[in-house]
Amino acid sequence: MSTTSHSSHFSQELETRMTRFGLRVAADLSERNETLPHDISERLRFAREQALLRAKTARAAQVQLAPSTPVLQTGATLALGGGQGGSEGSPRWLKFASLLPLLMLVLGLFLIQHTQWYQQINASAEIDTALLSDHLPPSAYSDPGFSEFLSEEQHSDGS
User: Fold this and answer.
1) DSSP label at 36?
2) Using 50, 70 and 90 to split pLDDT, how confident is the model at 51?
3) Long-range interactions of 1-4: CB distance < 8 A, separation 24+
4) Is residue 146 within 8 Å of 140, Cβ to Cβ?
5) What does the alpha-carbon distance between residue 158 and residue 122 come to, in Å, rounded to a whole number?
6) Helix, strand, coil tally for the chain in percent (to 5)
7) What is d(CA 97, CA 75) in angstroms, rounded to the nearest whole number?
8) Which range (9-18, 21-30, 53-62, 145-154) has the least confidence?
9) Among 19, 43, 73, 120, whose Cα sits 20 to 30 Å from the Cα of 138?
10) Smallest Cα–Cα separation from 17: which of 28, 9, 29?
């Protein structure tokens, strides 16, 4: 059920309840009118006629204004849709707008992961280049202190 039809249904139900209440009050007043003095019953009759005239005037004014009065949409639709183009397409825009932060977070995490992976590859390539360009005998690579030499050299280059 759309907001507009829900609103009109609510207003019709409210008007129906108000009419029923008015009829009950009028019936109660009519029953008790017989026991009231003549001057009070005349004042009540005149007040009732005035109230009915005002109600009729108010209903006529409401009927004349109803077709030309624009129906306001919900705040979120009006804010994101700009109030133009109706509500068609707005739910898709709202879904996309709510998923956008999640998409940006995943994209940022992917970018961080890619950057770290690229830095690790560059660090490994620098070590491999240094090892291959250095003039060491093959027995130096199997020496137990060689890995410590590499880690010390890396620390001294990085600082």
Assistant:
1) S
2) confident
3) 2/87, 3/73, 3/74, 4/71
4) yes
5) 13
6) 80, 0, 20
7) 15
8) 145-154
9) 120
10) 9
pTM of the model: 0.32
Residue 144 one-letter amino acid: P
| Cα(133)–Cα(123) distance, integer angstroms | 15
Q: For residue 51, give the nearest of 34, 82, 26 by alpha carbon.
A: 26
CA dihedral 46, 51, 56, 59 (to 10 degrees): 180
Q: Say if residues 58 and 40 touch (Cβ distance below 8 Å).
A: no
Tokens of 17: 């309840």
One-letter amino acid at 133 equals S
